[in-house]
Write a structure and sequence with these properties.
With 274 residues, this protein is of the alpha/beta class. The model has no long low-confidence stretch (mean pLDDT 95). The strands form 2 sheets. It has a 6-stranded parallel β-sheet, with helices on both faces. It has a 4-stranded parallel β-sheet with strand order 6-5-7-8, with helices on both faces. Helix 11 links the parallel strand 9 and strand 10. The chain contains 12 helices and 10 strands. The protein binds D-glutamic acid. D-glutamic acid (DGL) binds next to helix 3.
Length: 274
């Protein structure tokens, strides 16, 4: 198979990585995309790093067993911080995570060098974002806030609870530190942009690492592996949990209809036995 026509694998615990799919479709419409949603094990954010690393590795193995891939995108911050280097050793194709692109964007955008990060408990506990930002610019101050409730709200589209108050309880402490930039350090959070933006105000730089990740993928493909020249690539979604639920929420979040036949239910046991 010609290298540039191979598919791109995208993995998340659930619907969060669909932001990556959306940007890929905008910037690289010819690319074929295989998406793995490990909804049977969502949330990753409250699990240990080694558990997340094993689950993510199994999801990637599943995709690699099904198709030839030219690139893997870990479209999950929690899985990226849990084991990016390990995935890179394990798989022959390039593996790109979402954290570094978000870090670089935030460091170049901030003016007052005070950056806020909202993320899962796993991502915050890893301390990866502050470490990488301070490596780039030692004068940066990073204020982190774990938001254990937000990913589940997005995954289940559970807007019956008072999401605005929950979001305020996470964001106000960061605003008290006079941050001028906020990283949405979990790929589920950009779906809550309409709630987050009014709380943080118009002047806040709100950074979605998924966007910057896809820009890096674009440059990387252009410079080395090659972009797929076809007009429109296919998308196949593998789901380890309830596929019907994923189908409904995915269509809403992607903002375009997806073919039900492009959703394939896998069992988590199968994924785990690979
Ligand atoms: N979307 C994942 C992330 O970026 C986490 C969601 C979860 O807790 O499973 O960290």
């Amino acid at each position: 198979m010609i290298e540039n026509s191979k598919a791109i694998g995208v993995l998340d615990s659930g619907v969060g990585g669909l932001g990556i799919v959306k940007y890929l479709k905008e910037l690289l419409p010819g690319e074929n995309i295989l998406y793995y949603a490990d909804t049977a094990h969502m949330p990753y954010g409250s699990k240990s790093a080694s558990e997340v690393k094993n689950l993510a590795t199994n999801g990637m193995k599943y995709l690699c067993a099904k198709h030839e891939l030219k690139l893997l995108i870990v479209a999950c911050n929690t899985a990226t911080v849990a084991g990016l280097e390990c995935y890179r050793k394990h798989f022959p194709m390039p593996v790109i995570g979402v954290v570094k692109p978000g870090v670089k964007a935030a460091v170049s955008i901030t003016k007052n060098k005070k950056i806020g990060l909202i993320a899962t408990v796993g991502t915050v506990n890893s301390n990866t974002y502050p470490k990488l930002m301070v490596e780039l610019d030692p004068s940066i101050k990073v204020y982190q806030m774990p938001c254990p409730k937000l990913a589940g709200i997005v995954e289940n589209q559970d807007f019956n609870q008072d999401v605005i108050s929950i979001a305020k309880s996470y964001l106000y402490p960061l605003l008290n530190n006079e941050i001028d930039s906020l990283i949405l350090g979990c790929t589920h959070y950009p779906s809550l942009y309409h709630i987050i933006r009014p709380i943080v105000g118009k002047s806040m730089n709100v950074i979605d690492p998924s966007f910057f990740t896809v820009r890096e993928v674009y440059d990387f493909l252009t410079q080395s592996l090659g972009r797929n020249p076809q007009r429109e690539g296919y998308q196949i979604f593998y789901v380890s949990g309830q596929s019907w639920k994923f189908y409904q929420i995915a269509q809403k979040l992607l903002g375009y209809p997806i073919n039900i036949s492009s959703i394939r239910q896998t069992t988590s046991d199968f994924a785990l036995s690979l």
